[in-house]
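Researcher: Sequence recovery benchmark, item below. Answer with residues only.
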């Protein structure tokens, strides 16, 4: 029985790059970011480095990657309230970026800004907001 299991494992190793099960592996490899830290924001002028939670699993990081990929630049850059969260995103090449996130309510867009580009705001679609709410564990 042990030889059979060893044989099956070897076949899986050989065939994994060519078929079933490879999609998840490719998704992990293709994702550029590998770590996201989240803190409650202390206001737009300062970045809070006392992180409440850290994410490093693909299913958790994916929502933040989608947030960045699918954002649209806002023309009207007035945000009437303080940000909700400070995000620190670390990429596989050890580059780190920081963002301020104004989390919308369920079914509404969210807004974020890179702290190094304070003059540009980005809008995130409502479906991504809904996924952020779930990932962050925020009560609506």
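Model:
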């Amino acid at each position: 029985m042990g030889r059979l299991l060893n044989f099956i494992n070897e076949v899986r190793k050989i065939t994994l790059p060519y078929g079933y099960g490879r999609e998840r592996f490719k998704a992990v490899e293709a994702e550029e970011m590998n770590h996201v830290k989240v803190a409650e924001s202390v206001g737009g002028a300062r970045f809070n480095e006392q992180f409440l939670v850290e994410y490093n699993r693909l299913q958790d990081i994916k929502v933040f990657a989608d947030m960045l990929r699918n954002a649209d630049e806002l023309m009207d850059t007035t945000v009437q309230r303080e940000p909700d969260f400070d995000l620190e995103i670390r990429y596989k090449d050890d580059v780190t970026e920081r963002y301020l996130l104004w989390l919308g309510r369920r079914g509404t867009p969210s807004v974020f800004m890179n702290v190094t580009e304070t003059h540009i705001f980005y809008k995130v679609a409502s479906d991504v907001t809904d996924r952020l709410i779930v990932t962050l564990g925020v009560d609506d």
